[in-house]
Each structure stands twice: as C-alpha cells, then as structure tokens.
Design goal:
- With about 100 residues, the chain is mainly α.
- It has a domain of about 45 residues.
- It is about 80% helix and about 0% strand.
- The chain is built from three helices and no strands.
- The longest helix has about 60 residues.
C-alpha cells in the first residue's frame, strides 16, 4: 500500500481549492448575468409604465380641451391655431385637416 506524503496531500488540497474557486467564480458570473437580466426587465417595465401614463395624460388633456370647446370655453379657432403652430409632421397635420407646413 502506498502512503501519501504531506506534499502530495498539500497538492491535492491546493487543486481542490483551485477547483472550488473556479466553481465559485462561474456561479458568481451566472449570478451577475441573472442580476443584469432582472435589472433590464425592471427598467423595461418602468419604461412601459411611464409610456402608458404619458399616453393616458395626453388622452385626458385632449378630452378636457374638447370638452372646453363644447362648453364654449375655448373656440375651435383657438384650438386650430394651437395645432397649426404645434404640429409639424405631415400625417399629424392631415389628421386635423391642416395644410402642410412650409
């Protein structure tokens, strides 16, 4: 039977430690990648919510303006002038029957 010397035992311990370090580094790398994915997903969710809230605000402002026009608090000419000065894209202007911008 062969006996293990102290030096061989130390080498085995060093090799085992090196393997353990490599395994832990691989797990750390995976954990960091998973964290990045979660952060990206969280940011995407926040951005989607912000866009939805922005769209809702615009719809509500539009509804309030249209209601003010119906109540006579704002004239259609005022709204048309506002849109004419604000809208630059041809398809947006066409939606409100505005002439193309110069």
């Amino acid at each position: 039977m062969k006996t293990t010397t102290a030096m061989e035992t130390n080498m085995k311990n060093v090799e085992a430690a090196a393997k353990r370090i490599a395994d832990l580094e691989a797990k750390l790398k995976q954990a960091k990648a998973a964290k990045q994915q979660l952060e990206a997903r969280r940011r995407a969710t926040e951005n989607k919510k912000a866009r939805a809230e922005d769209t809702r605000r615009k719809i509500l402002v539009g509804a309030a303006v249209l209601a003010a026009v119906e109540r006579g608090e704002l004239s259609r000419d005022q709204i048309t002038a506002l849109l004419n000065n604000s809208l630059t894209r041809a398809d947006d202007r066409a939606l409100f029957n505005l002439p193309p911008s110069p």
